[in-house]
Write a structure and sequence with these properties.
Rossmann fold, alpha/beta, 9 helices, 52% helix, 3-stranded antiparallel sheet, single chain
Length: 227
């Protein structure tokens, strides 16, 4: 199997790059953040505490059956048989996913799903902590970044026409707060692996980004064949 690990900041383009590069190589792509968001949806629907602790998370995750499946090329996430895909991009979902994702037991459950996926397929797995914790032996590791302002504007353009969409300034504020929390969390900090390629998309179009990443993938493939 050939595995690509993509980490990075929200709005940096990592999800779009993961999908684009998977299409160029006919690989499967797994969006880790969607799994956390699916769990957040299930947690919120149960009406559990908005300030979870380890015991609450243990009780929740021990009963959570996570299922990742595809409808065409679209990744779906179901928890205990309910498909939450339509709610994954809501702001409340994103905010609460950031609250529950640092808990080690929940991260371990998601990691099992990711590693099983990587054993089955040539794939791209993207999220946070993939290159360090989930796929430490990935054939290629990328850490995608861009300036906070560019990332906030990308996010704003995604959701500006949805009901009760937050302003650009609110998105930027939330993004900066999440960046800080992600970088400084005790478990699963959002930092690049030592052997990751740092890739800044601030001034690049999608096609330019994909062309660069494609070259990196082909180099790694050639090196793997020769070794």
């Amino acid at each position: 199997m050939f595995n690509i690990a993509i980490d990075g900041f929200g709005g940096s383009g990592k999800s779009t790059i993961a999908v684009g590069i998977s299409e160029r190589f006919n690989f499967k792509v797994l969006n880790t953040g969607s799994i956390y968001r699916g769990l957040a949806c299930a947690y919120l629907e149960l009406g559990l505490s908005k300030e979870p602790n380890e015991q609450i998370i243990h009780d929740f995750i021990s009963r959570a059956e996570i299922d990742v499946f595809f409808v065409g090329k679209e990744q779906h996430v179901a928890v205990n048989g309910k498909d939450y895909t339509g709610s994954l991009r809501l702001e409340e979902t994103s905010r609460f996913a950031a609250i529950i994702s640092p808990f080690p037991e929940l991260r371990e459950a998601v990691k099992i799903v990711q590693q099983d996926f990587a054993r089955k397929y040539n794939c791209v797995i993207e999220g946070r902590g993939v290159g360090i914790d989930v796929l430490p032996n990935a054939d290629l590791k990328l850490f995608i970044t861009a300036t906070p302002e560019v990332r906030a504007m990308r996010r704003y353009n995604q959701i500006k026409d949805t009901p009760d969409a937050p302003s650009f300034q609110q998105i930027l504020k939330d993004l900066n707060a999440r960046d800080y929390a992600d970088e400084h969390r005790e478990h699963g900090a959002n930092v690049p692996a030592k052997d990751a390629v740092i890739f800044d998309t601030t001034n690049l179009t999608l096609e330019e980004s994909l062309d660069i990443v494609e070259k990196l993938v082909r180099q790694k493939m050639n090196n793997k064949k020769q070794s």
